[in-house]
Specification:
Blueprint lengths: L3 H8 L15 H11 L4 E5 L2 E4 H17 L7 E5 L4 H12 L3 E4 L6 H10 L4 E4 L1 H4 L8 E4 L4 H5 L15 E7 L7 E6 H8 L12 E4 L7 H10 L4 E4 L8 H11 L3 E5 H10 L9 E5 L5 H9 L5 E6 L9 E4 L14 E2 L5 E4 L12 E6 L6 E2 L3 H7 E3 L9 E11 L5 E6 L3 E4 L2 E4 H9 L4 E11 L2 E10 L6 H9 L10 E4 L35 H14 L17 H15 L5 H6 L3 H5 L26 E2 L2 H12 L7 E9 L4 H14 L5 E6 L2 E6 L7 E5 L6 H13 L11 E9 L2 E9 L5 H19 L13 H11 L2 H14 L23 E7 L1 H15 L3 H17 L3 E8 L16 E8 L6 H17 L5 H8 L13 E5 L13 E5 L10 E8 L2 E9 L5 H20 L13
Parallel strand pairs: 1-10, 3-4, 3-5, 5-6, 9-10, 11-12, 12-13, 25-26, 31-32, 37-39
Antiparallel strand pairs: 1-2, 7-8, 8-18, 13-14, 14-15, 16-17, 17-20, 19-20, 20-21, 22-23, 24-25, 27-30, 28-33, 28-38, 29-30, 32-33, 34-40, 35-36, 39-40
Length: 1061
């Protein structure tokens, strides 16, 4: 339960925006009042045609009388298919004055879809332009051609009609995509339009405004444009230029028409921010919305002559266009989502859990909308309406309802709302709301398709639809599939790619596992095979296409649009060709000749094509003072403060070197390695209550060379030294945090031991050390400079970057996944021990080898291919079965390390980047192993997607408190080594790694594997203060027995009550 103060804040204090508006009249009545006040003021202008308020009022009255004679009245829908022109506005007003409601129709939509809409909405009258009439499906009702019948309509009465409708009657219905495969119509009332038009938070309309009318009538923001202007005496101005075809022309028209208020989709805003960032100079208010905004695009707009008010508007069609607003009055922070803000007036917003209870601030919940703008529901769909429009338990108003948006969001501490994505399978593509189920249903109707799934993928900053098909037999031709879909769906709902699959991956619940769908295949037609580019121009175009469309390979005959291109991407392509090839390509060329071969014919000789490079997000931090610690460094430094004499986090690596070692060259190589990597020469301290690190100049590398050939047993003496050195703690308040010993045990045979503290390096770093040390030694022996590339950034830069990025609301937002994933999971593994647990955590341990062998490893790979999982997931599942059965717990949490090098700049660094994933293995319900695999797969993929969250912060957020003798959340690790390994090669020498077993382990149990030529091999580490060797060998035997059983029968039950043998 929320504390009362927080509950009051989220339910009331942040929902207190109310304002009076004319709630007792209809839209057309408010317009008539305005027309009587300013009859001669311009009302509507499209191109050269302008109608005054008097003319608009009289013409709409004349048409309304005619519609009334055709039976139009309250709750009667009139189909409206009219070009954006004064006739469109006349038609809308006339329908309302007749008492009816309008249904905007887009003639470019498939005839089948339009026919369904007309039938579902029970349309009895069509109001059209004559040239649109031929594009519409057959219609048996009355049809009025507003343009060709203008003379006859002009002879009708201009007197106002008697009132037949009220503010609770329908005003319009707009159809959006539906999850069942059928579009659904949102029924909007007069009251909702008035509440929107008189809300001052989006824009305080007045008679001085010139409002742009740029949206299609079937796109609900047109409501904001049209009625926001006409109910306030403002001037509605049509914008005819298409920003996707010509951003420059669009910007020029905005400037030339002197509009002061405008709406654009977020996709168009992004396009103009790239192409013409000053397009909105002079506007009073620019409202944008439709999908998440790019902070960089908003910065571009703000820096190039911004509008007076830049507003991010959010809202579902079902709630009359907009429900929330966020005023972008300062450049938004990069790397953070742009909030959707707070509620508009008269429309409280709630973030609720599955029990319709408010969620705490910062915790994700589903967004519900209430208030005056709520529509009636879905036209002719009472069951769906009842599921989505719910009684409002927080309102004292009789009949008050909530609209369930299906959007996930969370409250920021200041009350603004941050959008987190969809809770269902509805997405927005270029501003259009799309139900993926509708596309899937259309695909399943194709005679060659047995099943289908559609997802939205982000690629190159653009969202595209990807279809996955299970064919009955032969795979249908892509072009034929596209034609099939275009007959049934609007263009924005036709997927960019089509990938055939033998079967759709399923979750444990039998639902399609969308996260398991592979990367989409480029959608080439079967008729054209890949033809490589030949000329320099063709090569350059293929490179640009591949980059923009995010595909690996582009051929001469590939079609830009079949590969996922659309008009916005086409504009970007034209811009890139202009910038990189110095050629001006008309956009029409791409539409008329959409292949590389055709485009190349229009471009002449290639000019230098080195384009600008993106600035990396990670940059060097100033070195003029102390720098913060990364989260991983902080954890290890706090451990050091508690146990300064512990060597538990020492990482020793050893090598046997045979041959004539150049000792000074090796020492010089180690010195250069220290100078190259700041992570090994930092000092840690506490300053003003903050843990900090300071980079120090590279002093002399801590080095010891000893010739032991005179010892009775040189090898034993060397190992005594190595083990003693590995057990010697580092002082983290001093530098450096690395040391090395070279011990001569025979003529031309040495043991090299390098020891580094974990705070300065991780497992990946060992490969970096080996690779770079070999390169530095080779350069010294050969008397040349090293060819290692300079490092762009250093580990302290990463630490500062991480602390700037993963903090505050950003960290809280990312932690929410782990809080949900681990909710209710056990925090302790109750494995029986062979002796009482020591009062404090210890690290004494040893290991036993585990080998799967070639046959077992091959069988494991075969199972993984069939089940679409990885060997890591399969072995983790088997290990989880062993731990669950030995502990008697149906759920266990196992830790696993992950490299966590999220940026390419971090890959060549020595540093502590590794993070721990908390992986939940759930055996509830006694699942078969195949089912368990899918559970673990889903869990693992979710963890990978949130790997950047430091495990220490997860522990803190969960509030886990365990005794000091146990590790929190997980006490057992599973590892499949996959970090890039570099052999340590020294010229003229033979180098082999040697294991430095220092009798220390980090966790109570840890099973780790590496795939070798002979199969998977690894070790089972165990804490010897808890487990006997016999117990560890029993765990190893159990693991192999379980693995053999499930490889033989993947459906074998593996719950606690099942017999696994």
């Amino acid at each position: 339960l929320l504390p009362e103060a927080e509950r009051q804040r989220v339910l009331q204090a942040w929902n207190d925006a109310t304002v009076d508006f004319p709630r007792d009249v209809c839209v057309h009545e408010r317009f008539a009042r305005q027309a009587s006040l300013t009859p001669d003021a311009p009302a509507v202008t499209y191109g050269p045609v302008t109608l005054s308020y008097r003319q608009l009022d009289e013409r709409s009255n004349q048409l309304a009388w005619h519609l009334r004679s055709l039976g139009v009245g309250p709750e009667v829908l009139v189909g409206l298919c009219v070009e954006r022109s004064p006739d469109l506005i006349v038609g809308m007003l006339a329908v309302l004055k007749a008492g009816g409601a309008y249904l905007p129709l887009d003639a470019s939509h498939p005839a089948e879809r339009l026919a369904f809409m007309l039938q579902d909405a029970r349309v009895s009258v069509l109001l059209v332009h004559e040239h649109k009439r031929q594009q519409l499906p057959a219609f048996s009702g009355a049809t009025v051609c507003i343009d060709t019948e203008a003379d006859a309509l002009g002879r009708l009465s201009t007197a106002p009609l008697p009132r037949t409708s009220g503010p609770e009657n329908l005003a319009y219905v707009i159809f959006t995509s539906g999850s069942t495969g059928r579009p659904k119509g949102s029924a909007i009332l007069h009251r909702g339009i008035l509440a929107l038009a008189f809300d001052p938070l989006l824009h305080p309309f007045d008679a001085s405004d010139r409002v742009a009318q740029a949206s299609n009538a079937s796109f609900d923001p047109s409501t904001f444009e049209i009625w926001g202007a006409l109910l306030h005496g403002a001037h509605l101005v049509g914008i005819t230029a298409n920003p996707a075809h010509s951003p420059q022309e669009f910007a020029a028209q905005v400037r030339d028409t002197r509009v002061s208020v405008m709406f654009v989709t977020t996709a168009v805003l992004h396009l103009l921010a790239r192409q013409v960032p000053g397009a909105f100079t002079g506007l009073k208010t620019l409202v944008f919305g439709g999908e998440a905004a790019d902070p960089l695009a908003l910065r571009e707009v703000l820096q190039h002559g911004p509008p007076q008010r830049l507003v991010n508007g959010y809202g579902p069609t079902e709630c009359t266009v907009f429900s929330s607003f966020h005023l972008v009055d300062a450049p938004p922070a990069l790397g953070f989502p742009v909030p959707i803000g707070g509620p508009l007036t008269n429309g409280p917003l709630y973030l609720l859990d599955g029990r319709l209870q408010p969620v705490p601030i910062g915790v994700p919940g589903e967004l519900y909308v209430s208030g005056e703008r709520l529509g009636r529901g879905y036209f002719n769909r009472p069951e769906l309406t009842a599921r989505i429009y719910l009684p409002n338990p927080f309102s004292s108003v009789p009949g008050a309802r909530l609209y369930k948006t299906g959007d996930l969001a969370r409250f920021l501490p200041d009350g603004r709302i941050e959008y987190l994505g969809r809770a269902d399978h509805q997405v927005k593509v270029r501003g259009y709301r799309v139900e993926l189920g509708e596309i899937e249903e259309a695909l399943r109707l194709h005679p060659a398709i047995k099943d289908a799934s559609v997802i939205a993928r982000e690629a190159g900053g653009d969202r595209r639809l990807a279809a996955y098909l299970v064919p009955h037999d032969a795979i249908p031709d892509v072009s034929e599939l596209r034609a099939w879909l275009r007959e049934r769906l609007p263009e924005h709902m036709v997927p960019a790619s089509f990938t055939p699959l033998a079967a759709l991956p399923l979750t444990v619940n039998g639902k399609v596992d969308r996260r398991a769908l592979p990367n989409p295949e480029p959608a080439r037609g079967d008729a054209l095979s890949y033809v490589p580019p030949q000329t320099p121009t063709e090569v350059a175009l293929c490179r640009l296409w591949a980059s923009l469309l995010d595909v690996e390979r582009v051929g001469l005959h590939d079609n830009f649009f079949h590969l996922g291109g659309h008009s916005l991407l086409a504009t970007q392509l034209v811009s890139r060709i202009r910038a990189e090839l110095g050629a001006e390509l008309a956009l029409r060329v791409l539409f008329t000749g959409p292949t590389v071969a055709e485009m190349a014919q229009h471009l002449g000789t290639l000019v230098p094509d080195d384009g600008p490079r993106a600035v990396p997000p990670l940059v060097r931090a100033p070195r003029d003072g102390a720098l913060p610690l990364s989260y991983s460094q902080e954890r290890l430094y706090r451990f050091f403060l508690r146990a300064p004499t512990s060597s538990a986090y020492n990482i020793p690596i050893g090598f046997r070197i045979r041959g004539p070692v150049r000792v000074e060259a090796l020492r010089g190589a180690l010195q250069a390695l220290l100078e190259r990597h700041e992570s090994m020469r930092v000092k840690f301290s506490e300053e003003d209550g903050q843990l900090v690190q300071r980079v120090t100049p590279a002093g002399e590398f801590p080095w010891r060379f000893e010739d032991l050939r005179g010892q009775p047993d040189a090898e034993a003496a060397a190992w005594r030294h190595i083990l003693a050195d590995a057990a010697t703690p580092f002082d983290l308040t001093k530098d450096p945090l690395v040391r090395a010993s070279l011990l001569c045990v025979k003529d031309d045979e040495h043991l090299l031991m390098i020891c580094v503290h974990h705070i300065s390096a991780d497992g990946w770093s060992m490969g970096v050390i080996a690779r770079e040390l070999g390169a530095l030694y080779s350069a010294r022996v050969q008397g040349r400079a090293s060819d290692l590339a300079p490092l762009v950034v250093q580990y302290p830069d990463y630490a500062a970057w991480q602390r700037t990025w993963l903090t505050g609301t950003e960290l809280s937002r990312r932690l929410s996944y782990w809080q949900q994933s681990l909710a209710g999971a056990p925090t302790e593994l109750q494995l029986p021990t062979d002796r009482p647990r020591p009062p404090v955590r210890t690290f004494n341990g040893t290991h036993r080898e585990v080998h799967l062998g070639r046959d077992r490893s091959d069988a494991l790979h075969a199972l993984c291919r069939r089940e679409n999982v990885t060997p890591f997931m399969a072995m983790l599942s088997a290990f989880g079965v062993v731990l669950a059965r030995r502990s008697g717990q149906e759920e266990v949490v196992i830790g696993s390390p992950i490299a966590n090098r999220l940026l390419p700049e971090l890959e060549p660094l020595i540093g502590m980047f590794v993070n721990g994933l908390c992986l939940r293995v759930n055996l509830r319900g006694s699942p078969g192993f195949r089912t368990l695999l899918q559970r673990v797969r889903e869990e693992t993929l979710g963890a990978y997607a949130h790997q950047e969250v430091p495990v220490d912060q997860i522990v803190v957020s969960l509030g886990v408190e365990l005794p000091v003798n146990r590790s929190p959340v997980f006490q057992v690790m599973f590892v499949l080594q996959n970090a890039p390994e570099a052999p340590f090669e020294l010229p003229g020498l033979t180098v082999t790694p040697v294991e430095v077993n220092r009798g220390s382990v980090t966790y109570e149990l840890a099973l780790s594997f590496t795939e070798m030529a002979g199969g998977f091999s690894g070790v089972l580490e165990f804490n010897t203060d808890l487990f006997d060797t016999r117990t560890a060998e029993g765990i190893r035997a159990d693991f192999l027995r379980v693995l053999d059983a499930v490889l033989a029968n993947p459906d074998l039950p593996v719950g606690l009550d099942a017999q696994v043998s």
